[in-house]
Prior knowledge:
6-stranded antiparallel β-barrel; Rossmann fold; 6 domains; Topoisomerase I, domain 3; Topoisomerase I, domain 2; alpha+beta
Amino acid sequence: MSKQLVIVESPTKARTLSRFLGADYKIEASMGHVRDLPKAKLGVDVERDFDPQYVIPKDKRKIVEHLKDVAGDAKEIILATDPDREGEAIAWHVAHIVGGIQNAELRSKKEKNKKKKNSASSTINSKFSRIVFHEITKEAILEALKSPRSLDLKLVDAQVARRVLDRLVGYKLSPLLWVKVKKGLSAGRVQSVAVRLIVEREREIEAFKPQEYWSIEALLRKQKAKSSEQFEASLVKIDGKKAEVKNEKQAKEIVTDLENKDTVWQVADVEQKEVKRYPYPPFTTSTMTQGAANLLGFTAKKTMKLAQDLYEEGLITYHRTDSFNLAPIALGAARKYIKENFGSEYLPPTARIYKTKSKVAQEAHEAIRPTDVRKQQTANSEQLSKDHQRLYDLIWKRFVACQMAESIYDQVTLDIQAARYLPSRQVGKIQDTNYLFRAVGSVIKFSGWQKVYDRDAGQTVEPDEKPVPALAVGAKLDLLKLTPDQHFTEPPPRYTEASLIKILEEKGIGRPSTYAPIISTILERRYVELEERKFRPTPLGAATNDFLVKNFPQEIDVGFTAKMEDQLDDIANGERKWVPIIREFYNPFEKHLSGVFEKSERVKIFPELTDEKCPEGHPLVIRYGPFGKFLACEKYPEHKYTKQFESEEFRIKNEELKKLNLKCPKSGDPVILRQTRRGRIFYGCSGYPKCKWASWQLPKDG
Length: 702
């Protein structure tokens, strides 16, 4: 008996769906894309309106044959891939290979002869249908089956356009880089912009000149008050102007002046108010990857993999989204949960609706949330780890908190005047300099959403609880201590994964599905490296960036790349056709490329010098091999001397280990720190190779 065939991307998703669908359904996984552009050639017919020349990858041929076999026996074929452009494209390709679309080319002949050209072919067999759901739950699946639709060819076109555009740029630029920079390099349209941001930030840091400044803190107490009622205040104004203390000499003069026995300290102004702090919106892809990086230490790649697993297990909604939208049923469930578990005072009068900032967000999509707010644990699935639970916990807390009442602080601000006054017959007339100190203190009055999403969830709320006494204007104070502190202005920080994703989103570079791949790619190509979890360009990355900026200023311009992303969104929204957009970009790009090949000079990459020397006295430089960094003589490869590169983390751990004086548990020889070829740190016996004891963990003494 023929069954209804449901095709999804992964076995996990197939297994989850099988829990909800009966024996009438057969569920198969395509294992991702079943067709792609060929690896060994361009695969785009530029002369035929950039027609993509799709092939079935070798590792997908058995899967394709199997899908064809089971599709032939099915009475209906339901395409249930993910609800975004990539998912729509996978469904479209699957429909092609199993006979759901009669014309195997991208466009039908009839469409090619029309002026209104170039949409994905749409002659779809009536045996096929497409269903979309944003969470893998029984209710969502059954609802989707009630309202099947045709393939959304606008979304397919947008995915095709991105793939073709990226292939054209990559395949045309890469040979140029091999000749002008270094053999084996590759360039990417969006990745090159990300590298540019990192290089430009590094140049800002290198050019930064720190400026000295001083702060002055006063420890005060109301006269005759208890010692426990002391508080701190900061110097903010001198003679009514912003306090700018630029050096130690100036700071000491101010301290001497303030410590004068005739200086009177008194409260000049008091402000008491309630401060409300509102919850953060639910997670989008960008904010989830930022949050997981900052709070859990996860890379974007790891976060997206964990989120994919949680989605396919039916625990969270779709994780590639830039929308803050929440389904009414989810809002109702959250409000019910909050009232039952925290009390009605933690519930705002109406559900909180967050406006999506992204102009391209699809409001039909939801923010990332748990599919069942009552479920705080991911359950004992063999497929899920502690890290899955940690990410789920973060998503759950963020979702629940976003629907809770605001937290309320009682805030007190004291302005304190310090000055010497003229004799009593001229009371109120200030003699010499007038200093103004300010103390701001907040005490939480009602926790609201912080009851759930508190510091344990990694969200530090400013200001911290720091009580300041509510004193009356004119109250006299005793000075207990003055503390001048030297500071220096700091350069802008290097990008972390979280801050890089944030700036990419702010500038309109990339979309939810591309943030993690962008970061993985620039790391794998060794254009950048992570140093203490912060991005730093490698000499190769800086040299490649400088070459591209000089010769292709438009193509890797941030604004231009953002505009291209907008145009891809226009295609997805049905506002533009994809071929004219590709043509507008490609024709001038190809002409310019030819000129750069002829006129540009080869780039010299200067390796990074170190303070160390080789046995012959030549400086050692940092070079890059198949396994990462290593030290080599500056005359390498003529001089063969090399040495393993020791990271800052290695040096710090090594110093700590030396202090412990630990012994090998097997031989009794000293334990030393070692590194794998790829730079991973482990503990080993100094008696190696006689003793092969090793451990990833610091051994316990004795």
